[in-house]
Write a structure and sequence with these properties.
By secondary structure, the protein is α+β, with helices and mostly antiparallel strands. 13% of the residues lie in helices and 30% in strands. The protein folds into two domains: 140 residues, no CATH class; 102 residues, no CATH class. The chain is built from five helices and 24 strands. A four-stranded antiparallel β-sheet has the order 2-5-6-9.
């Protein structure tokens, strides 16, 4: 069956008789549109090297605007379903545990998405002012971790040495850095991460910075209300919400300098072996990116 996109509005899918599209194993997808003139072309964003949509991928493209986030956080998603009546009961396409989507930022900054931009405008899903505002944000943001609200959940790879989210408002963006959340320095004969990936640079890495865990997790930042942080002023903490893959230590018999993550708990670390673990804290009044984070919180509360 020919792939056709008649609407991106979930509320109109049934009335316009949007057909179910099969995109199994596709790499370059071509959809005809309601005007019958300019086709819509979509290419899969590679996720960890995966170049194609999975098998048995049938459903519809639609535009999603999260009511808890600002309009600039909108995105096109693919809902997996065999009939439009099942739309609300079904789930979105995920590739390697991550939701597949085209962010509004990517749609605006990608020349080949002119048809997609026009569809969003024609259906009133996005207005011209929002398009204009998004076009003024840096194009490089489209491939980065974007936070539109401090408490927005996001996916974190525990093998990262540094967390670098971009704090985005309608008119500005600011990258902030949180180094070594899940790493520590120690003398090892071989880096566990190098062993895991099958690579080895040397037989002895002295005082190496190494990651302690592997896995994908869902997390969010929070402003701490813990008693031990009151004297510090506004302080960020990091809460684990869910595990998307198995979380496992890289070091056999690991001693827990970085406390094992658990859903529902905060990130905890030990300052030295055998010490009591402490909740990781980022006091905004005392850290480099504190002012930028405070400005972001103020801007998103307006």
């Amino acid at each position: 069956m020919k792939r056709r996109v008649l609407t991106l509005d979930p509320s109109k899918m049934v009335s316009v008789k949007q057909n179910i599209c099969d995109i199994s194993l596709g790499t370059r997808l071509r959809f005809s549109t309601s005007n019958g003139e300019t086709p819509l072309r979509i290419y899969l964003q590679r996720i960890d090297g995966c170049p194609v949509f999975p098998e048995d991928t049938r459903g519809v493209l639609y535009y999603h605007s999260n009511p808890t986030l600002p309009p600039i956080a909108g995105e096109v998603r693919f809902r997996i379903c065999d009939s439009l009546e099942d739309f609300d009961r079904c789930s979105d396409l995920h590739v390697l545990k991550r939701r597949w989507s085209l962010s509004l930022l990517r749609i605006v900054h990608t020349p080949n998405f002119a048809t997609l931009r026009q569809m969003l405008l024609d259906e009133g899903l996005v207005d011209t002012q929002l398009m204009s505002d998004v076009s003024c944000l840096p194009a490089k943001l489209q491939d980065r971790l974007l936070l539109f609200h401090l408490s927005q959940p996001f996916v974190l790879d525990l093998a990262q040495c540094q967390l670098e989210p971009n704090l985005v408002t309608r008119h500005s963006s600011q990258k902030v850095k949180f180094p070594n959340l899940f790493t520590e320095r120690r003398q090892v004969q071989q880096s566990p991460l190098l062993l895991y990936t099958g690579k080895r640079k040397s037989d002895f890495l002295e005082n190496a910075v190494i990651n302690q865990y592997l896995g994908l997790v869902k997390v969010r930042f929070e402003l701490s209300n813990l008693p031990q942080h009151r004297r510090l002023g506004p302080t960020l903490v990091l809460r684990f919400l869910d595990f998307l893959t198995q979380v496992k230590p890289l070091i056999p018999d690991y001693d827990g300098s970085v406390v094992e993550p658990k859903p529902g708990q905060f990130l905890q670390r030990r300052s030295r072996l055998l010490a009591q673990p402490k909740v990781w804290a980022y006091p905004l009044n005392k850290r480099t990116f504190g002012p930028a984070i405070e400005n972001f919180i103020t801007a998103t509360l307006k």
